[in-house]
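Please decode residue identities from the backbone states below.
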């Protein structure tokens, strides 16, 4: 009975499984070797296990001792990857690209301000100082006046050049931000498509009978498609900070993949299985404000900010689960206005947002709507902020929303940085928009140059206006002459001191490193006689020319209490130190982050990358296993031949 329970060909079946598995392993090894130089390829391995002994019951139970299994079987081909190391690499990849983007921009800016040199602001400040000193010794000399005019002109032109180069750099950064947002959307769309292909492929091989209990893997894995997806995920991590997770909605289906973006509490889904949430852009006022009188070209009027959801008026992006629902305000007319909420826009609508704040956008030119808290009926009105808006209080300028009538606040920018997390886009944005000492960017540097230019204009014009020019000037020896162009600071004709102060403050604020130039009455070679040197009128014989005005100018140049800059040269030196410090810090951070990213990538490559040496060892191992299985079949064939042809012949 025992012999009847086991086939005489059972050994053939066992050897055959070894033969097929060895051949399959050789095929997998060949696939690995073929892709040794393929970017993003993850080495693969055939997962096998022993076939359990066939169960026998009743009268078919074997009397032999020792139950024998049925050979070996394969389950699936797995990738050798570490989710932990993938996650660590992508985090460090985001960090290093933040600082790489900042460093690239700062190194360019450092080249702009490569001082001391013969054409920089420091050199021209010193030349200007020397020209004032020379004129103080001989205020009647034309050559000294011409030298002062020339030194002042070179100083203003250098400011203008720096301003233009910084503005051009900001334009380039803004274009890069727009391009990178498009790249994020292309990558997420491609990841969503790959998710669909991977899921359908792996679902096709799913059944309750082919789930490998040890690993939880169901059916076949779309390994090469997964490699393509991982390449895209690595690229995406260079742009924004992402977190990748695989999850199952049931035990009988393959895993789905989600990708969230951001840091802290501001994470949102970029991809959830096959659902892709796009990033959108909106234009807001630039933090570098232009002016119609700008002599060297105005900066960007608008810059791009990034948000979830479609910024199209009259409706939310219904496909985006990150966007809050929009409840129409009762009785509000549907009027399109170019005023948009941070997440989704809807003119004349009530928008409850994720942080419990509420936004209302009024109609244009209509009477106030009592159903809309804070609606004044004026066109166009954006009422936003926290719950205080319900009481009709003014908007909170620190609320995390944008409108297109003013630049974003620091709170809004920080909210956008948190939404994006680390990555190249954040690095570009911090350089394009950073305007305070904790976030040094191009606006901050431009504003520091503006401060210096304003101080020079204000201090020198105040003293120069009080002095008297040379009698050779048109109109004789007169006062109230501007040396630098002041955008009308002294043009107020009213009598109200408060109005005058506000008027002059507004004019002073419009003076920038881009508008910094000589007054129109100081640009001609003959205008040198309009330079005021004396504090009293001067006659044709130079009587009264006491040099007091030019002496005051020289003293003011060396003063330590000049407005909010203290001292011209020291302020500019401090500015240069800021540029150098920020560049060195970014370089150090980029180097440190690069070291961490390379370390994480090296570790994951030690697991995932194809090693020719290891694959050659495997090839020999599987080749020998194939030969051994073949020899087992030959031995079994010889045994059966003996039984069939050599036994039972006695007595024939």
């Amino acid at each position: 009975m025992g012999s009847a329970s086991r086939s005489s060909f059972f050994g053939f079946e066992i050897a055959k499984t070894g033969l097929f598995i060895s051949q399959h392993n050789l095929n997998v090894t060949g696939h690995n070797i073929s892709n040794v130089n393929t970017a993003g390829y993850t080495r693969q391995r055939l997962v096998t296990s022993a076939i359990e002994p066939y169960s026998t019951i009743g009268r078919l139970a074997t009397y032999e001792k020792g139950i024998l299994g049925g050979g070996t079987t394969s389950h699936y081909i797995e990738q050798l990857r570490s989710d932990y190391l993938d996650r660590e690499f992508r985090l460090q990849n985001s960090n290093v690209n933040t600082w790489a983007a900042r460093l690239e921009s700062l190194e360019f800016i450092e080249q702009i301000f490569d001082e001391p040199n013969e054409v920089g602001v420091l050199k021209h400040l010193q030349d200007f100082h020397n020209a004032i000193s020379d004129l103080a010794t001989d205020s009647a000399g034309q050559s000294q006046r011409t030298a002062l005019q020339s030194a002042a002109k070179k100083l203003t032109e250098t400011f203008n050049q720096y301003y233009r180069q910084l503005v051009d750099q900001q334009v380039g950064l803004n274009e890069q931000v727009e391009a990178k947002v498009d790249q994020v959307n292309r990558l997420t769309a491609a990841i969503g498509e790959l998710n669909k292909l991977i899921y359908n492929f792996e679902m096709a091989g799913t059944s309750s009978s082919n789930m490998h209990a040890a690993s939880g893997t169901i059916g076949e894995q779309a390994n090469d498609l997964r490699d393509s997806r991982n390449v895209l995920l690595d690229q995406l991590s260079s742009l924004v900070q992402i977190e990748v997770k695989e999850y199952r909605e049931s035990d009988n289906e393959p895993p789905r993949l989600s990708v969230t973006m951001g840091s802290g509490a501001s994470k949102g889904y970029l991809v959830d299985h096959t659902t892709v949430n796009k990033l959108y852009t909106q234009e807001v006022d630039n933090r570098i404000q232009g002016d119609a009188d700008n002599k060297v070209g105005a900066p960007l009027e608008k810059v791009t900010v990034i948000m979830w959801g479609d910024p199209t008026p009259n409706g939310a992006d219904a496909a985006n689960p990150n966007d809050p629902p929009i409840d129409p305000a009762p009785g509000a007319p549907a009027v399109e206005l170019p005023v948009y909420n941070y997440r989704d826009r809807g003119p004349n609508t009530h928008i409850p947002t994720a942080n419990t704040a509420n936004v209302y956008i009024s109609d244009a030119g209509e009477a106030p709507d009592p159903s809309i808290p804070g609606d004044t009926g004026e066109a166009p009105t954006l009422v936003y902020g926290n719950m205080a808006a319900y009481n009709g209080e003014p908007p909170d300028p620190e609320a995390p929303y944008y409108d297109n009538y003013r630049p974003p606040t620091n709170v809004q920018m920080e909210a956008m940085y948190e939404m994006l997390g680390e990555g190249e886009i954040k690095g570009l944005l911090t350089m394009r928009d950073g305007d305070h000492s904790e976030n040094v960017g191009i606006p901050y540097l431009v504003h520091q140059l503006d401060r210096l230019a304003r101080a020079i204009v204000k201090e020198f014009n105040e003293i120069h206006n009080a002095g008297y020019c040379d009698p050779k000037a048109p109109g004789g020896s007169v006062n109230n002459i501007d040396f630098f162009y002041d955008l009308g600071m002294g043009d107020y004709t009213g009598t109200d001191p408060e109005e005058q102060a506000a008027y002059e403050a507004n004019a002073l604020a419009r003076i920038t490193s881009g508008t910094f130039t000589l007054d129109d009455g100081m640009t001609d070679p003959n205008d040198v006689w309009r330079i005021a040197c004396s504090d009293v009128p001067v006659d044709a014989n130079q009587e009264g020319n006491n040099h007091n005005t030019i002496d005051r100018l020289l003293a003011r140049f060396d003063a330590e209490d000049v407005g909010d800059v203290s001292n011209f040269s020291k302020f500019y030196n401090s500015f240069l130190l800021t540029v150098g410090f920020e560049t060195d810090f970014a370089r150090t951070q980029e180097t440190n982050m690069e070291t961490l990213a390379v370390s994480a990538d090296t570790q994951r490559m030690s697991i995932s990358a194809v090693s020719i040496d290891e694959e050659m060892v495997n090839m020999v191992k599987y080749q020998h296993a194939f030969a051994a299985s073949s020899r087992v079949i030959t031995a079994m064939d010889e045994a059966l031949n003996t039984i069939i042809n050599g036994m039972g012949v006695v007595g024939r």
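Observation: The two ends are 28 Å apart (CA to CA).
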